[in-house]
Specification:
9 helices; alpha/beta; globular; 8-stranded mixed β-sheet; about 425 residues
Amino acid sequence: MTTPFDIRIEKLVYGGDGLAHHEGRTVFVPYVMPGELARVIPVTAKKKLIRGRAEEIMEGSPQRTHAECPLFTNCGGCHYQHIPYEAQLQFKTEILRETLARIGKIEWAGEIPSHASQPFGYRNRAQWAVRPGEDPTRSVAGYFQAASSVLVPADKCPILAPKLEATLTAINQALRQSKLAHEIRAIECFADPATDAMLLNVVVAKRTGTVSELASHFREVAPSMTSFLVQDEKSGDFELDGPGFIHYGAAGAKYRVGHLSFFQVNRFLIDELSTAVVGGEKGELALDLFAGVGLFSIPLARQYQRVVAVEGNVATVRDLEANLKESPAARPRHSEAGEFLARWKEKPDVVVVDPPRAGLTAPIIERLRTIGPGRITYLSCDPATLARDLASLTAAAAAGQSAYAIENIYLYDIFPQTYHIETLVRLERLD
């Protein structure tokens, strides 16, 4: 099927697309808004599903706005720049509520307060692919098209913090002038906007010379670069030039963050998110699972007599250990969350979980219900796995297990202009 057809967009769904129906099939189309009439060209078609692109918006939404970035719809990084920011928050809240009901059968009738970010200039971390440009002897940096390996060169990116955007511009200038050679394949940049301290990770297909020589080339481009890590694409080997970390100020502390450690990417919401996750309660014992570098562990240690911070990544644990040295109430543990809980016997006042996109495993949920903490605070980056896990945590209590009720749900817009949704859920044990 390749013939264009006209559809009325019914709603937005998680993933950034608009949803409609045509001749008994579900249609998904990006860069549209509910209520719009769009002429769609099919890209892929199956028996019950069509994925298409909007050839023309025949009747646009009165809310539709002009995109900030000229690469929008070509670059695959953003999905919502055609939607005013307040409307983005509204649509994300609706998507979250619908996902909880559809997947988790959780009919949450309460309010879902949304916590807004500055809509642009928020990212403190970025990843850029590097490929040959129109002149095959010169490389360019940029982003891939959605679901594609086609590079979109980018000198500017309005969702980046100004320091990162300036670094992207400087890197492309240097690439065009062949000042950065060595067959670079990817560059990752993380910076503290308050101090300009910066980490650079670089993947190369082939490197000539030493790591310090390559680092010196990048230091000319990014003078505030504090530490440099290069990875050989074929062997996977790493070489370091510099201390291997920077310190990032957030939540009333300085966090050591290494090249391979995760840290929240929205520079405007870090403090607010940390305060909300930790909450205002005090107690004897808190567990911080998937603790990362300790963003929540340090403030938890100000309110609980004991905090156990559990992290499975070996590189991140080094940062966690360094960050907790000034917090005597907190103890780091290098372990996968499931393995740790399998051995843990005490009943905590609270367990904080901040899992990756895949959510919690069934054994983790079973152990949480067995040890029965008074509260569980769940920070999720994927509404589908959150819905699945909440359904298990709020199911009727079995023998020897606790059941939980949802107390609050909050939406934190960590990723404006994109479909991504960060959700904070506080659960209370039903005694």
